[in-house]
Specification:
Blueprint: H1 12-19, H2 25-35, H3 39-58, H4 68-78, H5 80-83, H6 93-98, H7 101-104, E1 117-120, E2 123-128, E3 135-142, E4 151-153, E5 157-163, E6 165-168, E7 171-174, E8 178-181, E9 190-191, E10 197-204, E11 207-209
Helix pairs in contact: 1-2, 1-3
Length: 223
Amino acid sequence: MADICPNHHPEAAALLDYATGKAAQATSVLVATHLALCPACRADVRRFEALGGALVDAEPPAVLANGALAAVLARLDAGDDEEDQPQGETADAETIRLIPQPLRAYLGTGIDSLAWKIRGIGVREAVLDFGDPSVRTSLVRIAPGVKILSHTHDAIETTMVLKGAFNDVTGRYARGDVATATSELDHTPTAEADEECICLIIVEGNLRFTGRLTRLLNPLMRF
């Protein structure tokens, strides 16, 4: 997957959590997918990893319990680490072209095989299961020129563009870009007119529509 030098990146705290293994699974997959396209953030993560390694080296050695080494080797022989990774099926050519491997491993045969549901005129969503019911992680497809209803958020919404581009009050986001929206942002993401926009989105809490009429939908926006 070729580097494309995105203009918008995950926050430094998210990169640090990823480098130190503290990120939740959904966030880890989003960051890894961005890293597959962004050389600048890969360099940042390498620096964080190097710093973490230096801090570990400065710590006094821990005393291991008897048999600790044998237990670790037994786990490796059993292939536990490989079983924790999604194996998936061979993806179709379009999915391979659009979706970097960290995310593609979770999509089975491809994006068209997912359970897409209509979320409005020109908007479809496929919810992804990363084992954390406290957040909603999904792929969203927005038809060319379509606006997402104006909304804000209870907490944080993190969006990574995989195809096309969208605009809102904070700027333009194209392939590889990551947008972080907080409860203070009221926005109306709008796909550009020349191409469908596909995004990976992680939502903490709930969306809250802010339009005069669409506010009536807020009681229905629980997951």
